[in-house]
Each structure stands twice: as structure tokens, then as C-alpha cells.
TrEMBL record:
Its cofactor is Zn(2+). The gene is cobB. One of its GO terms (molecular function) is histone deacetylase activity, NAD-dependent. One of its GO terms (cellular component) is cytoplasm. Zn(2+) binds at C121, C140. It comes from the Bacteria. Its EC number is 2.3.1.286. This is NAD-dependent protein deacylase.
Amino acid sequence: MSFHQYKKIVVLTGAGVSAESGIQTFRDTDGLWENHKLEDVATVEGYKKDPELVLEFYNQRRRDFCSGHKKPNAAHLALAELEEKFDGEFLLVTQNIDNLHEQAGSKNIIHMHGELLKSRCPTSNQLTECFNDIETSNFCHCCQYPSTLRPHIVWFGEMPLGLDIIYHHLSQADLFISIGTSGTVYPAAGFVEEAKSVGAFSIELNLEASEIHSHFDQVICGKATSVVPDLVK
Ligand code: BJW
């Protein structure tokens, strides 16, 4: 596909882009999140009810991610290449909490649902890198209210990150591409309509047509490692 006719591209990615790097998607888990109920581990209420369970849940995912040496796949690499060669403005918005886009070389990226390998002071919002593990007893002393670091993850009911920047880019986009997301979680699922409202051309790349496929101008079904490099080359 030729990208020369476009000036501002926004790409949205979801779990499907990392699936072939060995990271499980969400909706393919029969409602169970790594053997836990979603509301127990991915909501503020779950965290308040049992913080140790939630902290251990994310520590285990950090261990799995780091010890599994997960690597970017051809889809991550193709997106980094597109950003590199594209002349106009390029924003990559990912719902994924892994760092595979960065490992592939993507630069202008927003993790709207947070990052697995970071934790956050609940008072000051200061971020701490945790490449390996954080213990549940790990207190944060960055401000005058020492408290337990929480995972830097956007749970259901919390405000996604970087929305001002995302909506600003969407309001000027002339091409919107959605890759490997089921279109079931908002506000990300509404981005295609935002982009279309300003006249952007929109393309969905997914294993199967998503719940919101009818909003897109073009839908391409297939594995991310095949359809993304095909689109970008
Ligand atoms: C492949 C493939 C391969 C597989 N190749 N493809 C309406 C408006 C606004 C909000 C709401 C609303 N209605 C409801 C809400 C609230 C709620 C929500 O959306 N609920 C829905 C369940 C209905 N949203 C929120 O609470 C959000 N906050 C919020 O709305 O704040 C207020 C607000 C209001 C208005 C404007 C702005 C803000 C926060 C959402 C936080 C989501 N967090 C999670 C958990 C992260 C923590 C963790 O990992 O433990 O983020 S949920 C989970 O879903 C995760 C993902 O990022 C997210 C999206 O999932 P994704 O990426 O789409 O994965 P899957 O598994 O669903 O799909 C994978 C796809 O890939 C499938 O289609 C496969 O076919 C495909 N695939 N292999 C290509 N090889």
C-alpha cells in the first residue's frame, strides 16, 4: 500500500498483535484472566478488596514476560519500519501492556492501558521501572505519604492514559489503522468513529472481523505477522 497520499497516521494495536509472540489475548481466555476472574484482578474494586492477590497476579505476569524472553514479531517490526519511513506524523496507540513495540523500534507510542514493567506511586503518580519483580511490601517513599506501589495498569473504570494526545491526533488523522483488537473495550473501540468523523480512511487488520468491523472502510482478515507486513511493504 502507498502511504504517500497520507499526512497523519494513527495506528491502534491490541492483544492480537502480540499473540504470535506468545502472549495470550484477553477474549480467548473463556472469561478467565490467567485463571482469575476479571473483576478480581483488573478493577479498582478487586485491588481494594485483595491488594496482595492483585500485586502477585501482576508480579507473576512480569516473571512470565521476562523469563519467557518475549520478542517482537513481524507485525511489531513492520509498524516500526512504517514509522521510520513515513514522512508525516505517526502515532502508535497500543492497548497492550507489554513492551514489544519498543523492542521492535517504535518511537512515538502511547500505552493507553499502562505498562506491565512499571509500577506507580498512588499519591504522586511517579513511575518506577520494575524489570523483574516488585514485592507486595515494597513501599514508595517518593512523597510525604509512604504507600504501596501499585501496578501501572489501567483497570476497568479508570481513565485510560494519554487520551488528550490521542484525540488530538485522531482529530487530524487522514488514515486510521486498527490491528489485533476485538473492539469490545472503550474508549479505544470508539477511535475509528472519531477518525472517520474527520474524514480519515480506516482499515481493520484482525484474525477475524471484529465487533466493530462495519465502521471500517476496509477490513483485512489474517494473522498479524502476515497481514501487517503485507500492508506496510
Ligand atoms: C489476532 C491474532 C493474530 C488474535 N493476528 N489478530 C463506552 C464508552 C466509554 C467507556 C465504556 C463504554 N462502555 C463501557 C465502558 C467502560 C469500560 C469498557 O469498555 N467496558 C467494556 C467491557 C464494555 N472501559 C473502561 O473502563 C476504560 N475506562 C474508561 O472508559 O474510562 C472512562 C472514559 C469514558 C469516556 C471516554 C474516556 C474514558 C478502561 C479500560 C481498561 C482496559 N484494561 C484492560 C486490562 C489491562 C490489565 C491487564 O492486562 O491485566 O486492557 S481490559 C483488556 O482489554 C486489556 C486490553 O488492552 C483491552 C482490549 O483487549 P484487546 O486488545 O482488544 O484484546 P482481545 O483479546 O479482546 O482481542 C484480541 C483480538 O485479536 C481478537 O479479535 C482476535 O481475533 C485477534 N487476534 N490472534 C491478528 N495472530
